[in-house]
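Researcher: Structure for this, please.
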Amino acid sequence: MKKLLIHKISYSNLCAQFSEQIIIAALPIIAVLSIHASASETAFIQMINTLPFLLLSIPMGIIADKVSRKKLMIVIEIVCAAAIFILFYLTFSGNLSINKIALFGFFIAIGTVIYSVASPALVASFVIKDQLINANRSIEIAKSIAFTAGPALGGILAGYFSGGLAFILAFFTLDNQRLFSNMFTQGACTKKSGRNVLQELCDGFIFLVRNKYLMPITTTAFVFNLSQYLLLSIFAYYVINNLSFNSFEVGVSLSLIGLGMLIGSFLYKFISIKINFGFQLTLGPISAFLASILMLLTIIYPVKELVFISFFFFGFGPIIWTISTVSLRQLVTPSNMIAKISSVIMTVTFGARPLGAALGVYISANFGVNSCIFAVFIGFFIQLAIILFSKPSKLKNLSDAEE
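Model: Predicted structure, C-alpha cell format:
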C-alpha cells in the first residue's frame, strides 16, 4: 500500500513538474514571438515567475503543517489549471500582454512551491524511516524526467499556434495529475496547535540554525544556488559570444542538466550501497566543483564539449545531494515541523538565485564576463569546503543522524 502511494506521489510530481517546465520554457518564447518582447521584458517575466519561491515558501510551509496536504495540493492544482487556461484564451483572443504573462506565470509557479514544501512532509508521514531514501529517489526520478523533457517540448510547441499547443499539453498534464492526487490518503495533515504563527516560524528558524546537520547543508545549498545562478545569468551571452554556440546548442547544454539528474537518480540505489552516507552528501558539491573547473577551462580552451560535460555534472551530482539531504531532513526534523523547515530552507536557497543573477550583472558590467566564470569557480569551491568540514559529511549511515 505504501509503495503504491509513493508511486502515486511520484506520478503526481512528474505531471506537476512536467506541466510547469513546459510553461517555463514556452512563456518567454511566446512573449518574443507574439508580443515582440524585449530582453528586459522577458527578464521581468522570469523575475515575477520566481517570486513565489521567495515570498510564499514560508507561509505555504506553515499552512501545509496545519491543513490537509492533499486538499492544499488539489486547490493549488485547480488554480494552476485556471491560470494556464486563461493564458491559452488570452493568446488566441489577441489580448496577451507582458504583465498578464507575468501575473499568470506567478500563479502557476505557486503550484511548484506547494509541491516542494508539502511533498517531503507527505512522504515522511507515510513512509518508515528505512524507506525514506528509496521514496525520495522515486520522486526525484520523476522530477528529473520532467526537467529533461519539459523544457525541450515546451520550446518546440511554443512555435505552433502562437504557443497554444504548449498551453493545451500543460493543462491536460496538470489535470491528469489532479486526478491521481485525489487518490492520496486523507490522513496527511497535522493537528492544529493553536500557537501563534510567528512563534512557530521562529521555532522553525531556531531549529534549523541549531541543528548540526541542517545548518551546514542549508548553507552549502545557499552558496550552490548563488553560484549556479551567477553562471546561468551570463551563460547564454558567454557561450554565444565566446564559444560560438547557436541557440540549439544552448538548449542542449541546459537539457544536459536534466539528463544528469535522471541518470543520477537511477544510479543512486547502486551508489548508496557502495559508499557511506556522508560521502553521498559530498558528491553533489564535488560534482558541481568539477563542473565549474570545466567551465573555467573554456576561457583558455574554447571547446564546446567542455560545456556539455560541465552541465551534465551540474545535474548528476546535485540530484544525489538532493535525495540524500531531503532524507536527512525528514529524519532529523519532527513530523509536525517538516513542511515549515522545508519552506524555510527553500526560502534561503531559492532566495539565493536572484542574488546570484544580480551578482552576475554587477561583475559582468564592471569586470567582464570572464570574471563571472572565475567567480563561479570560487563560489563552488566555497560550497565544497563548507560541506567537507561539516558534521553531515562524517555520517556513515543515515540512521546515525537520529538523536
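Researcher: Any notable elements?
Model: Residues 257 and 311 are 5 Å apart (CA to CA). The longest helix spans residues 2-35.
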